[in-house]
Amino acid sequence: MRRDLGGLADTEFDVVVIGGGVSGATMAWDAALRGLSVALLERTDFCAETSASSLKVVHGGIRYLQHLDFKRVRESCRERSALLRIAPHLVHPLPFVVPTYGHGMQGSEALGAAFLLLSAVTADRNRGIPDPDRRIPAGRLVSRRQLLEWFPHLDSTRPVGAGVFCDGQMYNPPRLVWEFLRSAAARGAVVANYCEVTRLLRRDDRVIGVHVTDRAGGGEFDVRARMVVNASGPFAEQLYLNQGLRRERTIPLSRDMAVVIRRPLVTGRALAAQTKYKDPDAVLSRGNRHVFLVPWRDRTLIGVNSRVWPGDPYSLEVTQAEVADFVDEIRSAVPEFEITLDDVAMVYAGLLPFGQNDSGAVDLSFGKRSHLIDHESIEGVKGLVTAMSIRFTTARGLSEQAMNLVVRKLGRAAPCRTEDTPLAGARFDRFAGLVREVQDALRTTGDDPVASHLAHNHGSAFGDVLRLADAIPNGRQPIAGTDTLRAEVVYAVREELACTLADCVLRRTDLGTGGRPADEALAETADLMAAELGWSAERQAREVTDIRGRYPGWSTA
Question: What pTM was computed for the model?
Answer without folding.
Answer: 0.94
